[in-house]
Amino acid sequence: MRASLIQIAVDPDESVDSRRRRAASLVASRRGADLVVLPELWPVGAFSYTEFEKEAEPLRGPTHDVMAKAAADAGVWLHAGSVVERAADGTLYNTSLVLTPEGELAAAYRKVHRFGFDKGEAVMMGAGDELVTVALPQTVLGLATCYDLRFPELFRGLVDAGAQTLVVPAGWPERRRAHWTLLARARAVENQSYVLAVGCAGTHAGVEQAGHSIVVDPWGEVLAEAGAGEEVLDVEFDPGMVAETREQFPALKDRRPALRTARP
Known about the structure:
- By secondary structure, the protein is of the alpha/beta class.
- The chain has a single domain (2-251), classed as 4-Layer Sandwich (Nitrilase/N-carbamoyl-D-aminoacid amidohydrolase).
- Helices cover 25% and strands 27% of the residues.
- It has 7 helices and 15 strands.
- Helix 1 (16-28) runs parallel beside helix 3 (62-74).
- It is globular.
């Protein structure tokens, strides 16, 4: 299976419309790939909180339309990263879109764990409450976004739902880049799954992005890793390795129900 991770740079001097067109061109250049993935909130910037309200769009808004055409033009499955979605009731969500090679919307995932503690995304956006998987011909994707990477229970739920390849678009900051690599490898090892973690380049509202998109196999080996700048990371991997790994080292079968806390 061939995947292309597009580590696009977010430049505050570039308009959102211009960046959409540029992203579509990058997707179109990946004809022949099976799956193309963009980062989290690349149209506006993951830390550009002051722009969220202005740039919010419906699920099938301008980003969906441009990316749907790009997916169809390239003939690829496209995880279009995430957008600031404005729901019918006015609530904002950090929502990922997955499009088929025909340009149809296959799935949407609203980010469950919102970053910011008492500011930013955590107070401006609603939280998703559903696990989302997408069946491709070669593998089953499990969807997560950025800060979700710190919550292993979400990934366990995705594996229980059949996920074999965990896709994590992000706007991860450079100052915590070591966590990014560590957690991506941990999620791969503990779930015996591939992890495709796609970061942004550039600077969002003064926050330098980590870049370093990474592909990890079910044994935790890094198959490919990008640098810090804008880059397209191409990688080939064998989806069949997931079943082989789980059979050779059947750790997931040894899971036990949550244990009771011992009383003194």
